[in-house]
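TL;DR need structure tokens for one chain.
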Amino acid sequence: MIKTKYDIIVIGSGIAGACSAFFLKQKGLSVLVVDRAGIASTGGSSAAGAFVSPKIGKGSPLQKLTNEAFEFSKEFYTKNFPKYFHQTGIIRIPKDDQDAKKFVEYEKFNYTKRDWIDKSGLNRYNIKEKNSSFFFTEAGVCDAPNMCNDILKAIDYKQYQVDEVEYRDNYWHIGNIKAKKLVLATGYENSLFDMRYMGVKGTWGSRGDYQSSLDLKISMHKKISISANIDGIIKLGATHVKSKEPCIVCDGEPLKSLEEIASTMVDTSDFKLKETFCGMRAGSK
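>> reply
TL;DR here they are.
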């Protein structure tokens, strides 16, 4: 039963909002999550391929932060929600011959558990590639919507369109519900306060889930991401479209570019599209 008073209200039920609520409740706080459209049913958490892997590079602060986040997420998911984290391993493939030369340099700056895998090894996994690649054995793929639902199963949730929030008498008010603190996890968009100084923008993504009998045990990323075959389903995507009108750019074929690239990486001859997912991720400008 939804109460009228909480310690914290979290607006947004994607992975950011769900995890925020989870950790706050672990600290003994009363938490309510509200979302206009349902748990992880729109936006990045709905459409993303949800590949969880380290970042390769030359030791930049962003790489270090991302890899710390990977280690934390991997442990969190395997400990608390292993059903929705498929630890398939992920192979990072050079984009081209020039990029392949950089991987030797990247190796010096990557301390995450990783192996080299050469052409013959890739071919054994039914991957069409000649360049040696990084194989992150502890990486994997999340089922993001089901993950978010499971994270929030013991937390109060209300589907509600929040058009405005009001702060008065030391409480944040949303309709007839109030809380001492407010967490905004609304992704790329927000109409509740001026976010210009934060530099948040949206990047459109489309993902396809395909039925296939292809023996693909490991996930991979090159120019696009392809998941392992999990219960007869292989994920392609998601795309990164920065246009403000992504549907015009896609021209009615949001998965065309994914399918074309995927066919150069694996055998897609028996791929049958089951479902298409689209949504806007939050990113920095």
